[in-house]
What we know:
By secondary structure, the protein is α/β, with parallel strands linked by helices. It has 10 helices and 8 strands. The protein has an 8-stranded mixed sheet, with helices on both faces.
Amino acid sequence: xxxxxxxxxxxxxxxxxxxxxxxxxxxxxxxxxxxxxxxxxxxxxxxxxxxxxxxxxxxxxxxxxxxxxxxxxxxxxxxxxxxxxxxxxxxxxxxxxxxxxxxxxxxxxxxxxxxxxxxxxxxxxxxxxxxxxxxxxxxxxxxxxxxxxxxxxxxxxxxxxxxxxxxxxxxxxxxxxxxxxxxxxxxxxxxxxxxxxxxxxxxxxxxxxxxxxxxxxxxxxxxxxxxxxxxxxxxxxxxxxxxxxxxxxxxxxxxxxxxxxxxxxxxxxxxxxxxxxxxxxxxxxxxxxxxxxxxxxxxxxxxxxxxxxxxxxxxxxx
Length: 318
């Protein structure tokens, strides 16, 4: 049962799209079959993330959907963010446009969400149908997430998830941060569950995930770690570094003085004497950096609500 825009839907489905021509009509048919079986009102939001093929044309040929067309390619996280902000349903469902996520799993995800009173249920692609390179990158990324942010979810990269409205509306994501949505929600206090879902092989097109995205994801991981640990007071991090540098400078200075007094070593030829100045200067610089970054973070957070990170060219209801 489709939903008129004047009626608030129970379910909102958000699908980021980038160069998925040939997959969309098949996915849309499967998705509507799965949603109609739930007997709930719904809306389907396809976010066209600057596709350069005819994905937009294929979407326009579909009926009963909303197309959010971004003015250029921003990345999956931003496309999801645009869809989440436009979603009106009490429960928001996300999945990929490549056909590898199975819409038939949505029913079980919803049952777990509501039955266990969770805020998010994430899909776990236990049996992956990806090539070897992607599997290796995925394993390495999982280890890094556990090390930096304590993320113990098995599959943080699976887009197939169901969320309560409050969870997605608390998010503001971009870059490669879609892989850290669950960690962000966990830090915010939302209850998260996971369940095994079907992962089908890609039949049309090529995977958008590779080493360059993995590198950007690693950079975002370090950023997430910093924000989680020190976003309120970044001065603390640089303060620790400053204290450590000053302590090392003091130790080096005392050793240089000891060498001068008891061993007759000349200060201008003593490496420890120069290390003293290096560490003391580093301590002052670290502390100064902390103050500056603390002020910049406060300015950033005070103005972020008015900042527009992406632009929607057009919203089309078919």
